[in-house]
User: What shape does this take?
Amino acid sequence: MHTAEHSSFSMVCPKGDTMTDSTQHTLDTLAKVLLRCWIMGFVLLFISLGAILLMGETIHKLHGSMFGLSAHELDVIFYCWMGLLKIAVLTFFFIPWLSIKMVMKKLA
Assistant: This one.
């Protein structure tokens, strides 16, 4: 079902599949967006870590008194927050970016 005009603008994939220039451009753009989101997610993680390390006592006083939490409980909450953020950033941004890059490299 491929016409000569269509195949001149497409890249033949293994097993006879094709990827048009438009699809390749879309995947490339999506990969760039995912990479930037991954980087910004880790910047947020490092900012959170820096805030906790530099202003930990102030944060403990403020949030501890607001919610009646001990310093240990707040440390556990912060540790869980950073772990969940790291897992979310890797799952939703890095792994899809890596998958797209692998597919594009295979088809190049």
